[in-house]
Design a protein that fits this description.
The complex is a heterodimer of chains A (500) and B (273).
Chain A lengths: L4 H8 L2 H9 L2 H5 L11 H4 L13 H10 L18 H9 L3 H11 L3 H7 L11 H6 L6 H15 L14 E5 L3 H12 L3 E5 L8 H4 L8 H13 L3 E3 L10 H6 L2 E6 L5 E2 L12 E3 H10 L16 E5 L3 H12 L4 E6 L10 H10 L2 E4 L1 E8 L5 E14 L5 E5 L5 E4 L2 E4 L3 E2 L3 H5 L25 E3 L2 H4 L4 H29 L1
Parallel strand pairs in A: 1-2, 1-4, 2-3, 4-16, 6-14, 7-8, 7-14, 8-9
Antiparallel strand pairs in A: 5-15, 10-11, 11-12, 11-13
Helix pairs in contact in A: 5-6, 6-7, 6-10, 7-10, 8-10, 11-20, 15-16, 16-17
Chain B lengths: L3 E6 L4 E7 L1 H6 L5 E5 L7 E4 L2 E3 L4 E7 L3 H7 L9 E6 L10 E7 L3 H13 L3 E8 L8 H6 L3 E6 L6 E2 L2 H11 L4 E5 L2 H13 L4 E4 L15 E4 L2 E4 H4 L2 E3 L5 H8 L3 H13 L1
Parallel strand pairs in B: 8-9, 8-12, 9-10, 10-11, 12-13
Antiparallel strand pairs in B: 1-2, 2-6, 3-4, 3-7, 5-6, 13-16, 14-15
Helix pairs in contact in B: 5-6, 6-8
Classes of the chains: A alpha/beta (500), B alpha/beta (273).
Bound molecules: flavin-adenine dinucleotide (2 copies), iron/sulfur cluster (SF4) (2 copies) and FE2/S2 (inorganic) cluster.
């Protein structure tokens, strides 16, 4: 919708934007240096699991940064955003002093701007397509920082506007899961007048946003605020409800649910299947982060235990690995190490997370791979063996393949190992639906234009379809599924009325 | 939801609770379990659904007080509600007409054994149950087990009730006497280890229901992993029952102690309060 060039052109040609463009020459805009996100000092922030590292930019910084954007005739940045936010429009509104207007623009296509502004891998998405990067070899406009600024400004202002919803149409639809994919689906369906229930297996809503991503990167209060907006719009939430177990899909159909969105995520942690991996003190990043983020195990008052490692090795180079290693540091580790089998250039983590981890004192042991673990007489891990890797030819992922170097084995003393080498799709939902088509990797197969699965009234998106992706891609899927389920259900209803 | 409607003490450490949850009562099958959380700061912990009444919409739990979470649950009274309760989880027991079943339960393991005994009996099997505990006051649910068994042998370590000896002695006696088609064992890991060594000698197919440490119970964390047949499996989604002769019990025993230090600290803090 917002990618429609005619629409973008008409928006761009509005008088206020033309005036704004003519006020400052592009030459002047391009000499302004990119804003620096103010941060909590590393030596302070490593003491607090629950304090955000990025402090947010000021209004002055935001206005100046916004003025860097040239309001391009062909805003390529939008193509880089999976939900096609009208980026120049929201940025120009900030430059023009209408921050609430900017926030409203964000919400047209993005149900969780405060979240995306914080966790999107902008450097690979919108910002990688900015004119500054593509044509001028300069640092991109700080789209993510500005998005966070506008969303935070709106929240702080207390004037957050609840998007309008159509009159209730009485049609019940359900989501399986409450991660970003399901939440954005729910938001769009409730806007269209549907009676939406979000079912979540855990005792908290939010999926990875709650149990995975730590407070120092994404405070739960921010997620809760966005959830509150959805509640105000009429979305119902049921926690402790595992669709397929607590009630079957047939039970829910009987209760009147006519459409389902499957957003059950990629919950199944992978291990490496090497000797000693089941010793105590070796856990998946999901277990470690769940204990800390969802169960609050680091706080005195929580009943959930967590092992406080002094020499912590985290295996992997993604966001999950960075979150785990930085959590370990905050929980008192003397040595917090990343063990990654490729080099930094291949790391899938957001660049900012790697930078922050380094500032905080995380040791990076790149081009290293675990071979075996050893334990004390009680079965508690105390040592691991690794070898060094070199990089060979590019593999299927386009990244250079790591190859072990003969005779490079060495040992490392450890007392906590966190395995963050990826997740597989959660098999629970497919296992309850024999007619549901799944790929050989266990992901749900959908028609990519509609996100419709092999069962007509079931749409799917997020990690259960992609195998592992990003918050914003999951949300994009949710939106697309909502749009197409709406069409599907309306057609079905008009067909049945015709028949009657 | 999750309101406690009945509470009964089997001993000062073992309690039976009947809890309202119509959805779980309707969906559960023998062998399933639930995960509970008590209070905002409580931990998530698993308990087997010992019984259910789909008409009244209630499930029965039998809990032994071992640490903080079980003590918090036991402290709830009739009318109180359990903060979070989710289920039914795990694969149900594979119940078929197999012939003669030897059902073995140790300690509080008799609670999860009960629905399985009942289901096997209802499926037309001959069921011989051996239930065991350290002493008389720790034998639970004997009458209920008798109701669904053709024969019940009670064993106590100290001989204060039934016959004196370990559960394996009672099992051997039955196995020597008649042909057993399948065996199921539930109890402390150490008991399951020796019970399964016993049936292995006689090549009797045996299932053991494992009580691994769990967090989510949905396959998301891997805390509950066990090695079965040389492969890592997740107890909460691939189990809780596995072929007992393939389980690496020594590893399981080791893993059960994974948070012992933290549990001891938590327990002493809780008891001070
Ligand atoms: C530690 C970590 C850090 C990350 N950092 C980033 C980042 O910085 N930037 C970024 O863009 N992405 C990041 N990601 C990836 C991103 O979080 C995921 O791609 C995204 O959350 C996927 O969303 P989803 O809606 O598909 O599923 P999820 O967020 O996984 O949510 C699925 C939910 O469904 C529930 N569920 C499953 N089965 C059922 C059922 N049968 N009934 C009811 N509920 C069910 C689950 O309990 C879960 O809560 C990170 C992931 C992790 C683990
Ligand atoms: C699938 C499954 C079903 C279960 N069903 C039941 C049930 O029906 N009734 C019941 O009372 N318990 C059952 N348990 C065990 C129960 O979950 C634990 O007793 C409980 O989590 C203990 O928590 P806590 O905080 O009270 O004790 P903690 O302080 O967390 O644990 C104390 C110690 O007791 C040990 N322990 C835990 N459970 C047992 C056990 N069952 N037998 C011997 N030692 C144990 C642990 O290794 C631990 O070190 C089940 C466990 C699983 C995985
Ligand atoms: S949602 Fe993400 S990709 Fe889209 S504009 Fe915002 S930061 Fe960029
Ligand atoms: S490409 Fe960059 S400069 Fe151009 S409109 Fe987008 S953000 Fe602004
Ligand atoms: S309890 Fe988390 S995977 Fe089994």
């Amino acid at each position: 919708m917002s990618l429609d060039p005619e629409y973008l052109k008409s928006e761009r040609s509005q008088e206020w934007r033309a005036t704004l463009r003519s006020k400052t020459k592009n030459k002047e805009r391009t000499v302004i240096p990119r804003v620096h996100m103010p941060e909590q000092a590393p030596e302070i922030r490593v003491k607090y699991q629950d304090r955000e590292v990025n402090l947010g930019i000021t209004s002055e910084q935001a206005a100046l940064e916004a003025s860097r954007c040239m309001d391009c005739v062909t805003p390529t940045c939008i193509e880089g955003c999976p939900v096609n936010i009208n980026i120049p429009k929201f940025i120009k509104l900030i430059e023009n002093g209408d921050v609430l207007g900017a926030a409203a623009t964000l919400k047209e296509t993005n149900a969780l701007p405060a979240v995306c502004g914080r966790v999107c891998p902008q450097e690979k998405q919108c910002e990688s397509k900015c004119f500054y990067v593509e044509k001028m070899n300069l640092e991109s406009v700080a789209i993510g920082h500005l998005e966070r600024f506008a969303a935070d400004f709106e929240r702080a202002s207390g004037t957050s506007n609840i998007p309008k919803t159509a009159a209730p149409n009485g049609i019940r639809v359900a989501t399986v899961g409450s991660g970003p994919a399901a939440l954005s689906f729910a938001g769009d369906m409730v806007k269209n007048g549907y009676d939406v229930t979000v079912f979540e297996a855990l005792h908290e809503i939010g999926g990875v946003l709650k149990y995975g991503i730590p407070e120092f990167r994404l405070p739960n209060a921010i997620v809760d605020f966005e959830l509150d907006n959805l509640k105000k719009m009429g979305v119902k939430f049921e926690t402790n409800f595992i669709v397929g177990r607590t009630a079957s899909f047939d039970d829910l159909r009987e209760e009147g649910y006519q459409g389902f969105f499957l957003g059950s995520g990629a919950g199944l942690p992978r291990f490496m299947d090497i000797p000693g991996e089941n010793f105590n003190g070796i856990l998946s990043s999901n277990e470690y982060l769940t204990r800390v983020n969802l169960m609050g195990a680091n706080s005195e008052s929580s009943d959930t235990p967590v092992i406080l490692g002094k020499r912590v090795a985290v295996i992997g180079g993604g966001n999950t690995a960075m979150d785990s290693v930085r959590t370990a540091l905050r929980l008192g580790a003397d040595r917090a190490m990343i063990i990654y089998r490729r080099s930094e250039a291949e790391m899938p983590a957001r660049i900012e997370e790697v930078k922050h981890a380094k500032e905080e004192g995380v040791e990076f042991m790149n081009l290293c791979n675990p071979l075996e673990y050893f334990a004390d007489e009680k079965g508690m891990v105390n040592r691991m063996q690794l070898n060094r890797m070199g990089l060979g030819e590019p593999d299927a992922s386009g990244r250079r393949r790591p190859v072990p170097i003969d005779g490079s084995e060495f040992e490392l003393e450890v007392d906590l190992v966190i395995v963050a080498v990826g997740v597989s799709p959660n098999p629970l939902v497919p296992s309850c639906l024999p007619d549901l088509k799944v790929s050989k990797w266990g992901t749900i197969v959908v028609d990519e234009d509609k996100m419709q699965s092999s069962i007509d009234e079931m749409f799917a998106g997020g990690d259960i379809v992609r195998g592992g992706a990003t918050v914003i891609l999951a949300m994009g899927d949710g939106r697309k599924a909502a749009e197409n389920m709406h069409i599907y259900l309306q057609n079905k209803i008009s067909n049945t009325t015709k028949l009657n | 939801m999750n309101r406690i409607v009945e509470k009964e003490y089997f001993s000062d450490k073992v309690i039976r609770l009947v809890v309202e949850n119509p959805k779980i009562a309707r969906s559960r099958k023998a062998g399933n379990f639930v995960i509970l959380k008590i209070g905002e700061k409580g931990e998530r912990f698993p308990l087997t659904i010992a019984d259910a009444d789909p008409v009244k919409g209630t499930i029965t739990l039998v809990v032994q007080i071992v640490g903080v979470s079980s003590a918090k649950l036991a402290a709830l009274e009739i009318g109180d509600s359990i903060t979070d309760l989710v289920g039914p989880l795990g694969k149900p027991t594979d119940i078929e007409l197999k012939g003669t079943i030897l059902a073995c339960g140790g300690g509080v393991g008799v609670a999860p054994l009960l629905p399985i005994v009942e289901a096997f009996k209802k499926a037309g099997n001959r069921v011989i149950s051996v239930i065991a505990a350290r002493s008389r006051d720790l034998i639970i649910l004997e009458d209920q087990i008798r109701r669904w068994s053709d024969e019940v042998i009670v064993m106590t370590d100290d001989g204060s009730y039934g016959r004196q000896g370990l559960i394996t002695a009672g099992m051997e006696e039955v196995i020597q006497r008649e042909k057993i088609d399948e065996c199921i064992v539930i109890g402390p890991a150490i008991m399951m280890k020796f019970a399964s060594l016993t049936t292995r000698k006689y090549a009797i197919p045996t299932q053991a229901s494992l009580n691994s440490i769990m967090v989510d119970g949905t396959g998301m964390c891997g805390a509950c992993r066990v090695t079965v047949g040389g492969k890592t499996r997740f107890t909460c989604v691939d189990g809780p029952e596995f072929d007992a002769h393939e389980i690496n019990f020594d590893e399981m025993l080791m893993r059960l102690g994974g948070y012992r230090a933290e549990e001891v600290i938590a327990n002493s803090k809780y008891n001070q309060k």
